[in-house]
Amino acid sequence: MLATGAxxxxxxxxxxxxxxxxxxxxxxxxxxxxxxxVERIIPDHLWADIAALxxxxxxxRSVGRPRARAVLAGIVCAEQLGCSYTKIPPPLGVSAKxxxxxxxxxxxxGTWSAIEHALHNSDHIRQLRTEANATLT
Length: 137
Description:
The chain has seven helices and no strands.
């Protein structure tokens, strides 16, 4: 009955394995021993170097904006330590959406390359990367 009144060809439904091809990444949790805190991921000496590189806070209507240091810790977990954005540790107090939005803002502002360079050259981040990789085996 529906087929007779419809315009155009009727095609069978296709099944997609992944809704957004190319966007699928397996969700991997952060594997560090001990408690994960903002201060453990971004210690004071590293924060002192990076804080000067950050653009000024944008004017937003929302009241509760997560601190830049906590957002940076979430981004480091996802980008540097191999954790997926959906598995950012809850003690950091930031969401995956906030971290991705702020990373996009920093990339658009042109400051992310300098921040990434400082993170990549940090001995502390190198140690965290080694620890995260060691707990995988």
